[in-house]
């Protein structure tokens, strides 16, 4: 199949709020690509229904956990093992190319140009600039690659410190990534009912964006992806 899609992931009702914002921000800026969310079985039916109203496809996947406690402890984010679930995006072979977006990203303009890039395109991590940040990346779904990644992770762990990819960097701020333990939805609202939400009040979060923007050690940042 030749279709292309943006893909995000939500394993909890809280992250569904972020996922909804990702989809709405993509639609607001007129994407011509599909918009897909992967969810895990523990996401409530109410949240799934809310996602179905903004996403083209809601795809159920299994939870995976990297259990990479050493690196997660170094990051101070023991809860992030579950983000390994995003590897499922390589199984979406109904699409020829995908752009994965974390559920804590916000698209500020049309970013369809990302589909002109190859696997694997991403931006450097602001904290560990010799690694890429997995909040936004371009991939080609392939069961072969998926199996290879799973095997590699089983043998070497999910973090091997190697990055062979194309760094994305250009002029202006197009995608904001609210990385870190505090998310826009955790500070502004504790609603966990899966109901639909408007785009974040960008002004409220601007200060945090700028802070994130400054902590990076390169002009091209993962948390404020410039394309
Ligand atoms: N995620 C999720 N449930 C979790 C943690 C993470 O669905 O409990 C997904 C979600 O798409 C999230 C991504 O994994 O955006 C990466 O996690 P997070 O954004 O919290 O990591 P950070 O970008 O802060 O390092
Ligand atoms: Mn993130």
Automatic annotation (TrEMBL):
Protein name stated in the entry: glycogenin glucosyltransferase
Catalysed transformations (reactions): L-tyrosyl-[glycogenin] + UDP-alpha-D-glucose = alpha-D-glucosyl-L-tyrosyl-[glycogenin] + UDP + H(+); [1,4-alpha-D-glucosyl](n)-L-tyrosyl-[glycogenin] + UDP-alpha-D-glucose = [1,4-alpha-D-glucosyl](n+1)-L-tyrosyl-[glycogenin] + UDP + H(+)
Keyword ATP-binding attached: no
Leading EC class: transferase
Keyword Cytoplasm: yes
Enzyme Commission number(s) of this protein: 2.4.1.186
Functional summary from the UniProt entry: Glycogenin participates in the glycogen biosynthetic process along with glycogen synthase and glycogen branching enzyme. It catalyzes the formation of a short alpha (1,4)-glucosyl chain covalently attached via a glucose 1-O-tyrosyl linkage to internal tyrosine residues and these chains act as primers for the elongation reaction catalyzed by glycogen synthase. Self-glucosylating initiator of glycogen synthesis. It catalyzes the formation of a short alpha (1,4)-glucosyl chain covalently attached via a glucose 1-O-tyrosyl linkage to internal tyrosine residues and these chains act as primers for the elongation reaction catalyzed by glycogen synthase.
Organism of derivation: Seriola lalandi dorsalis
Localization: Cytoplasm
Source taxon at top rank: Eukaryota
Family: Belongs to the glycosyltransferase 8 family. Glycogenin subfamily.
Gene Ontology terms: biological process: glycogen biosynthetic process
Cofactor: Mn(2+)
Keyword set, alphabetical order: Cytoplasm, Glycogen biosynthesis, Glycoprotein, Manganese, Metal-binding, Transferase
Pathway: Glycan biosynthesis; glycogen biosynthesis
GO terms assigned for molecular function: glycogenin glucosyltransferase activity; metal ion binding
A GO CC annotation given for this chain: cytoplasm
